[in-house]
Amino acid sequence: MPAKGKHAKADSTTKSRMAPWLVVAMIACVLIVAQTLSFITREMPLETKVQFGDVKIETQILVKNDAGEEIAAADGDQLGTGSSHMERIVRVKNTGDHPVFVRAKLQFACTDAKGATHDISDLVEYTHENPADPAAPSWTRRTPDDGFFYYSAPLAKDELTEPLITGLEIDTTQVIDQYGANCTYQLVVKGYGVQSENQKSENVFDAEGWAE
Question: What is the DSSP code (8-state) at residue 51?
């Protein structure tokens, strides 16, 4: 009988230790925003809401206006033939009530005249700028690379990340050679958030519960 009570206590302790990780695993979200550089196509954000609260992030694709203010980038900008550079500032904002870890994935695609979509991310070079303050949070990659950019610090309520990218450059000649001249180009940013509270570590690379 004492042995049974001992096991029961151990089981209870194990469950109590597991509980925060179960919460973390559920409190996560994915947000996808797409910007087409020929005509409008946007994907709606996805959010996961649970009993314990929710994670909300907003992924933004921006440009600067004449006054130097960041505004939403308009769809329909044209890419010329040859090497083309475009200003595109990508940030993530925490619009929820809890601090979150965030990660993001970039994709650049083209849709040909027949409606087939092709991933041409390997033909794009992104412009990255380090924060003015070396001590400020920044975007970083995991080693080995898993395709995501991770923000190095938790994002507080209503806080914006530093820019993930500030521009992109692509040689459209290569795209035309492969897929024809009537391609529509699309920048897709997939943002992922998970609560940073109750995680086992303050390191974003150790965060658990990412939505896929």
Answer: T
User: In the chain, which ranges are E strands?
Assistant: 28-36, 49-50, 53-54, 57-64, 70-72, 83-94, 100-111, 117-119, 124-127, 139-141, 149-151, 165-171, 184-195
Q: Which residue from 99, 111, 114, 88 is spatially nearest to 204, judged by alpha carbons?
A: 99
* Side chain identity, residue 138: S
Q: What pTM value is reported for the model?
A: 0.75
- Among residues 110, 111, 138, 139, which one has the least CA distance to residue 123? 110
Kindly provide the residue ranges of all beta strands, DSSP E only, lying in 67-197, ordered along the sequence: 70-72, 83-94, 100-111, 117-119, 124-127, 139-141, 149-151, 165-171, 184-195
pLDDT at residue number 177: 92
